[in-house]
Amino acid sequence: MLPDLLDLSTPYGSVPIHTWGVMITVAFMVAAWVTQSRARDGGVDGDKLVGLYLVAFTCGLAGARLLHFTMAEPDRFFSNPLVYFRIWEGGFAFYGGVLLAVAGSVIYALVRGIPVWKLADLTAPAVMVGLSLGRLGCFMAGCCHGAACELPPGAVNLLPASFEGGALWLFGSAPFLATEPFGGVGSNHVPLLPTQLWSSAIALGLFVLLSWRWKRRRYDGQVFAWLLLIYPLTRSFIESLRGDTIRGVDWFGLLTTSQLISIPVFLAGVAIVVLQRRKGIVAVQEVDDEAALLEELMRER
Q1: DSSP 8-state symbol, 234
Q2: Are 153 and 295 in a shared domain?
Q3: Which residue, 148, 145, 97, is CA-closest to 247?
Q4: How far is it, in rounded angstroms, from Cα 83 to Cα 203?
Q5: Which domain holds residue 240?
């Protein structure tokens, strides 16, 4: 719909600013802000989270890139491994980014003395608000789109006729909405199911739900467990409606890569519920040792 937000003129020529990249940057910043603003209430020292954001961002990009090439374009990667670093060309898988970002964040939390389960609960809603914004970037780029669909009579284009990026069709029967990119990185000039918009809306709804649960959590790890239980179900449903060709191999002739990964992710959510629900909320001392010692000395005087 709008792959390039603008073109910058430089002495070396025109440099396009990709809308997807801008939206991913905004998504990460919003997710970090949500995490930081809730850190104290979540029993996490916000000062220790600055390094976490760098770790999560770096691992997220690396993991998303790795899963994409491993499952979707292995021939292209092994014929020219340096293509891995050409991130401006696109090619990222959400699950790969999250899995490696979680692994990196856990290691960082253990090194810095951050309670892992409290951090997991704190960041779970932030991941979803980030995904919601990121999928809007996918919509603009034209990737991750749905299967082709037919426009019924009377469909109305919600975008101005002068817009050269495509059309957004609204009609009165299911699926009620279709997108038709003219210059995206996927299928063009074909009405498509707007799975990016549906994914964005679902992720935003999960952000609200997990934020509600976060304020009412009964044990450490509960919010994170809800994420692992609910997101794989919604992702598997959206996958069944996707129509883009680069999504990884067909496993057993039934499952896409994301649907296959959703199975152990869901089971991990079940395991967390079983193991953590009896432990409750573990109290965390909110003042550091130096402040506590100073206060004790003042009392003795």
Answers
A1: H
A2: no
A3: 145
A4: 30
A5: 4-147+193-300
Residue type, 4: D
**Total-model pTM:** 0.89
Average pLDDT over residues 53-78: 89
Q: Are 104 and 66 in contact (CB under 8 A)?
A: no
Calculate Rg over the CA atoms of the chain.
22
Whether 134 and 232 map to the same domain: the answer is yes
3-class state of residue 247 by DSSP: coil
How many CA within 13 A on the CB side of residue 9?
0
Residues 152 and 137 in one domain: no
Residue that has been written with the tokens 């430089």 in this structure: 10
Q: What is the pLDDT of residue 285?
A: 55
Task: Spell out the SS3 assignment of 245-288.
Answer: CCCCCCECCCECHHHHHHHHHHHHHHHHHHHHCCCCCCCCCCCC
Q: How far is residue 20's CA from residue 137's CA, in Å, rounded to a whole number?
A: 4
Report d(CA 171, CA 153) in Å as an integer. Answer: 8
Preceding omega of 175 cis (within 30 degrees of 0): yes
> CA dist 38 to 126, 128, 215, Å?
10, 15, 10
| Torsions phi, psi for 179 (to 5 deg) | -115, 145
Rounded to whole angstroms, the Cα distance separating 299 from 34 reads: 38
Average pLDDT, the chain: 89
